[in-house]
Amino acid sequence: MKEVQCNKVRENQISIECDTTCKEMKQKASELKEAEAKAALEEEKRRQQAELEAFENRLKGRRKKNRKRDEVAVELTLWQKYKYYLFPLCAVVVVVFAWYIARAMD
C-alpha cells in the first residue's frame, strides 16, 4: 500500500478511493446516526405524551371538583333556635303557676 501525506489529501491534491472496510465503517456510522436520531425522536414523543397526559389529568382534576353552590342562609325562628331551652322553661312556669293557684284555693 502506498503512503500518502495528510496535507496533500486535505488540500484535495490526491483523491483516495474507499475500499470495503471504509464503506463498512461509513455504513456503520450512518446506521449509528440513524439509531441516535430515532432514539431522540422516540424520547421526544415520550416526553410530549407525558406532557399531554399531565395536562389532561390537570383538566380532569378541575372537572371533578365539586363547586360549592351559594347557600342561602335561612334565619331560624326563636322557637327553632331555643326549643330545647324554652320547652322545659315553659313547663316549669306552668307547674309553678298551677301550684300557686292550687295553694291559693286552699
From TrEMBL:
Keyword Coiled coil applies: yes
The protein's name in its UniProt record: NFXL1
Keywords: Coiled coil, Membrane, Transmembrane, Transmembrane helix
The species this protein was found in: Cervus elaphus hippelaphus
Domain of life (superkingdom): Eukaryota
Membrane-spanning intervals of the chain: 84-102
Regions annotated as coiled coil: 18-65
